[in-house]
């Protein structure tokens, strides 16, 4: 199962052309995005740390802890993203355990990538 | 609300004396722990990166992605921990949205700490 299966028929799709900044580090953020098509680069402190693929999510950190964006997200190619606000996020967590598990797995994947940098 | 409120009356409590290794980096892991009392040090690649406080969790990464332990956990003081296996974890995710949100918030907190190291 892939988050695209849940969100691909969502009416609320945002398109970003290649090289557009989707959100910027240190700004307030109240949306996360499911990537339907295209790739998204994630930059922290001037370093590109990850490329988000279709079916994956980006921007979940600011939504989960209501803090500022920890990273800048830039469309690596033309992208189609489904925005998820807090209300929809909480609905998904309550109604769809798979969604919660998927978000957790993505966060853990990112932590492992970071651990390998810090511990290297 | 605090995870101790959910787990404090759990019958399955494990006690670890100060300085005992609770789990070791690179070993298989199928339990996470809720810290009821005491503090737990988290070490990655020979560096102490975090001290887990009561009400917080440790060891969730290996449980969530079924991979090896990314870190070593050592009892900083005498500790009382509630172990959570995959079955209980999935039950909690399905039945208690607060639990999922709490796990996500802890993962995000750890990612922000890591981001500040990588981006510094």
SSE topology sketch:
Two copies of one chain form a homodimer.
Chain A: H1 3-7, E1 14-16, E2 21-23, E3 32-37, E4 40-44, E5 47-52, E6 57-58, H2 60-65, E7 72-75, E8 79-84, H3 86-95, H4 97-119
Antiparallel strand pairs in A: 1-8, 2-7, 3-6, 3-8, 4-5, 4-7
Helix pairs in contact in A: 3-4
Describe the structure using short key phrases.
4 helices, alpha+beta, globular, 37% helix, 120 residues, four-stranded antiparallel beta sheet, homodimer
Quaternary state of this entry equals: homodimer
Runs of chain A with pLDDT <50, length 5+?
none
Mean pLDDT rating of chain A: 92
Widest sheet: strand ordering of chain A: 1-8-3-6
Question: Could you give the distance between the termini of chain A?
Answer: 33 Å
Tally of strands of chain A: 8
Q: In sequence order, what are the helices and strands of chain A, one letter per element?
A: HEEEEEEHEEHH
Task: Determine the number of helices of chain A (DSSP H or I, runs of at least 4 residues).
Answer: 4
Radius of gyration of chain A in whole Å, from Cα?
14 Å
Q: Tell me what portion of residues of chain A adopts beta-strand conformation.
A: 25-35%
Largest sheet of chain A: 4 strands, antiparallel
Describe this structure in words.
Two copies of one chain form a homodimer. In chain A, a hairpin with a 2-residue loop joins strand 4 and strand 5 (47-52). With 120 residues, the first copy, chain A, is an alpha+beta fold. The radius of gyration of chain A is 14 Å and the shape is globular. Chain A is 37% helix and 29% strand. The model of chain A has no long low-confidence stretch (mean pLDDT 92). The longest helix of chain A has 23 residues, at 97-119. Chain A has a four-stranded antiparallel β-sheet. A four-stranded antiparallel β-sheet of chain A has the order 2-7-4-5, with no helix packed on it. The A-B interface holds A 44-47, 49, 60-61, 64-65, 67, 70-71, 90, 93-94, 97, 100-101, 103-105, 107-112, 114-115, 117-120 and B 44-47, 49, 60-61, 64-65, 67, 70-71, 90, 93-94, 97, 100-101, 103-105, 107-112, 114-115, 117-120.
């Amino acid at each position: 199962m892939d988050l695209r299966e849940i969100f691909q028929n969502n009416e609320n799709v945002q398109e970003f052309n290649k090289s557009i900044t989707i959100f910027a580090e240190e700004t307030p953020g109240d949306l996360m995005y499911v990537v339907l098509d295209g790739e998204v680069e994630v930059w922290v402190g001037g370093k590109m740390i990850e490329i988000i693929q279709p079916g994956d999510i980006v921007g979940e950190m600011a939504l989960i802890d209501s803090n500022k964006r920890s990273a800048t997200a830039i469309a690596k190619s033309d992208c189609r993203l489904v925005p998820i606000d807090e209300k929809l996020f909480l609905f998904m967590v309550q109604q769809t355990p798979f969604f919660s598990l998927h978000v957790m797995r993505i966060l853990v994947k990112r932590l492992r990538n970071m651990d390998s940098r810090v511990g290297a």
